[in-house]
Design a protein that fits this description.
This protein is mainly alpha-helical. It is built from 42 helices and no strands. Helix 17 packs antiparallel against helix 18 and helix 29 packs antiparallel against helix 30. The relative contact order is 0.03.
Amino acid sequence: MTFCIIASKSLIPTKNLSTSLYYYFCSVNIDLFIIFSRAHHFHCSSELNSSHSFKPEGNNITTNRILATRDYNVKSLSGLCQNLVSNTAREKQKPGFFRYFHWAAPDYFNSLVSDPDLFLSFINSHRNRPGMVLKIFRWAEGRKGFKHSEFVFCSVLDVLVRNGFMRSAYWAVERVIDVDMYNFANVLIDGYLDNDVSCKVLDLLLWLCTKRSDVDKCLWLFDKMMVNGFLPDVKNCNRILRTLGDRDLFGRAREVYELMGVFGVESTIITYNTMLDCFCREGNMQHAFNLLMEMQTKGHSPNDVTYNVLINGFSKKGQFEDAKKLMADMLSKGMKVSAYTYNSLMSGYCRTGMLVEALGLREEMKRSGAMPTVSTYNALMHGYCKNGSVSYARQWVAVMQKKNLAMDILSYNILIYGYCVLGDINEALVLLSELRRMNLDPTLVTYNTIMDGLSRQGDLEGAKRLKDDMIGHGISPDIVTYTILINGSYRTGNMWMAKKFYYEMLRRGLKPDRIVYTTHIAGELKHGDLDAAFELQEEMRLKDFSLDVITYNVFVDGVSKLGNLEDACDLLQKMVQNGIVPDHITYTSIIHAHLEIGYLRKGRELFEEMVRKGLSPTVVTYTVLIHSHAGKEKLDLAKIYFSKMLENGILPNVITYNALLNGLCKSRKMDEAYRTFSEMQSKGIFPNKYTYTILINENCDIGNWKEVLRLYIEMLDRGIEPDSCTHSALFKHLRKDYKLIAIRELERVIRNERGNS
C-alpha cells in the first residue's frame, strides 16, 4: 500500500519546495511506510486507533534518528487518514465538489467507502463540521462498494440534527427508506443516540412514511415510538390519521386516536377535524356528534372545516335538517358559508331526488353571495339524470357556459351515465368523442359506465370492443369492468362468454371478490341453475368469503323469481339461524315475488312482518306494493301505501308515480290521473317515456285523439324519445301493415302543428 507517499504528493505544493526538501519529505514517508508495514494490520481501521504514541520495534538507527531528531509523534493510521481526508476536504472549497463522481479521489478516501468503522470514526471526530460530514457522506454513498450501516446513518443524522441541519437530515432519512434500512429505528430506540435527537429523527422517519402512504410502516413505527416513550409530534399523528382515513381504515384511525389520548399526545383542531371526517365518511354520525362535544369541552371551538365536514356527513346520511341547523349555526357565529358547504347539502338533495329543494338551495346560494361552482352544477345534473330527465340535466351545461365554467370529466361522466340509464348509448358515445375533443381524458369510470349501458342492451360485442379500446388508451380494466361484462354475459344468456371474461380477469392478476361471486350466483339463478349457484356458494366459503346479507338476498331474490316461494321463505329462516339479519332488500324480494303471482294478501302480511321487525321499507318496497295493487285495480290500497310512504318521509320517484298513474288510467279516473301527473312535476319529479306512454295509451282507448297528439308533441319537445311501446300504444287499433304509414303521417301532422304555432 502506498497511500502515505500519495498523500504527501497531494498535500505538499512541490513546486515551491527545493528539490532537497522534496526528497527529504519523501524519505520520511518511505521510512514511515516501512515502520507501518510492520504493524499487525496495515489499513485505516479503528483497530489501530490508539491514543498513545506509536513506538517502532527494533534498533533501526536511521529510523530512530529521524524520529528523535524531528520529535515525530506518530499517530495511528486511522487518525492520519482522518487528517488527510480533512485537509483534502478543506482544500476543496467549491460547493458540491464531492458530488463529482468522476473526481480521481486519493486512495485514502476509498478507505472511508469500504470501512464503516473508519467512517464512524471520521464522523465522530468532525461533529462540529456538519457541512463537511454531509459532503463526505453524499460522496461516499455514490461510490461503488459503500456499505450502508444503521450506525453510520445514526451518526450522520446525530451531527446534522445537533447542528440544526434539518433539511439535510430529512434527505438522510429519505436515504434510510430508499435502502430499506428500517432497523435503524430499533437502533435509535435502543439508545444509540440521545433521546432528544432520537425523537427528532424518528419523527422525521414517521413523517416520510406518511408522505409515502406506507400504512404498515406508519403503524409499526407509531406503536414502537409510543411504547418506548418517544412521543410523536401531533402533526405526525394527524398525518397518520389522514392516511388511514384516505384508505377507509376507520377502525385503525380510532385506535391511533385512542392511543394518542392514553399516552398524552394532545389533540389539535386538525386532529378533531380529521377524526370527524372519518366518522362522517363511515356514516357514524352519533360518534361524530359525541366527538364534537368532546372537542368543545376541551376548549377547541369548531372552525369552518369542522362545520363543512359535519354538514357533508349529515347530507350523505339524508339528515338534511341537521345539516341546515349547522349552516344556520355557522351564520350566527359570523362564519362565511361557502359554495363548498352548499354543494354538500345540494348533492344530498339531488341524490335523494329532492330537486325542488336543491333548486331552492341554489337560489339561497346566490342571495348569500356564494357563487355556484362546477360541482354545484354537477350535483344538479346528477339529480336530473338519476330521475331520468337527461334533457333537463343538459340544460345546465348552457348555464355553466354563460358563467364561464367549463365542464370537467365528472360532468361528462354524469351525462354519459344519464344517457346509458335511458338506453341512449349513441348519445353517450357522442359525449365520449366530445370530451376527447375538449382535451379531457376519459377515466375508467367513463368506460365502465358505457360498457354497462351496452351490456344492459345486450350489445356484448360492443362492450368488449370498448374494453379493448380502453386498454389501447392505457387504462387497465378493473374488477368492476369484469363484473359488468360477466353480468352482461349472463343477461344475454351467454354462459360461455361469462366464463371467458372470468378467466381473462384471473389472467390479469385480478382476484375475484365477493361481488364477482355474487354476480355469478345471480347469473346462474337467473338461468334456473340452482345447483351451479350453490356450488359457487361453496367455492366462496372455501376462499373465506362468508355469506353476507347481500349474498343471501341474491339467493332469496333468485329463488323467489323461479317461483319457489317456500324455498325463499326457508332461506329467510336460515339467514336468521346463521346470525344474518334480513334487511329491507330481503323482504322486498319476497314481497315482490308473492305480489307478482297474485298473492296480494301474503305480500301485505310480509310487509307488516317487516315493519314489526323494525325494518324501514324503502321507495322500492312501497313501489312494488303500489304497482301490484293499482294494477289489480285495488286503488284504495295503492293510495294507502302511497300515503304511508309520504308520512314516513319516503319520497316517491318517477316509477312510483307511473305505477299509480297506470292504476288510475286503468280505472278510467283520468281527472285524478292528470292531477297526479301535475303533482309529480311540482315536486321536481319529471315524467319519462313510460309516463307519457301510460297517458297516451288510455287516451287512445277512450278515443281522445287530440289529447294523444298534444301529449306526443309535449313528449318530443321535452327531448323524450318515444320507443316501440309508445308507438304500439298509439297504433294498437291499426293493422300491422298500416302502423308505419301512421307513424309517418303523425310526424307530418306534428311538423305542421309546429309550423302553425
